[in-house]
Design a protein that fits this description.
With 63 residues, the protein is mainly β. Helices cover 13% and strands 48% of the residues. The chain is built from one helix and three strands. A three-stranded antiparallel beta sheet has the order 1-2-3. A hairpin with a 2-residue loop joins β2 and β3.
Amino acid sequence: SYFWTFEGTAEGPFFGEVRSGTRIAMIGAAQNLFSDEGIVSTRHVFDFSGALVRAGVLKVKPS
């Protein structure tokens, strides 16, 4: 298992809200299942909603 962060710069429209040049980051994790032959399955979990909030596409209500 491992955690990862994907970061990049938007080069075009993203959900109709994000301008070109906007930095976007997404965090996630992956879990690999191994056998004697190598990796037999991989499961990815990522925070897509969090990426949309950080990019300004989704708004969060204050608690």
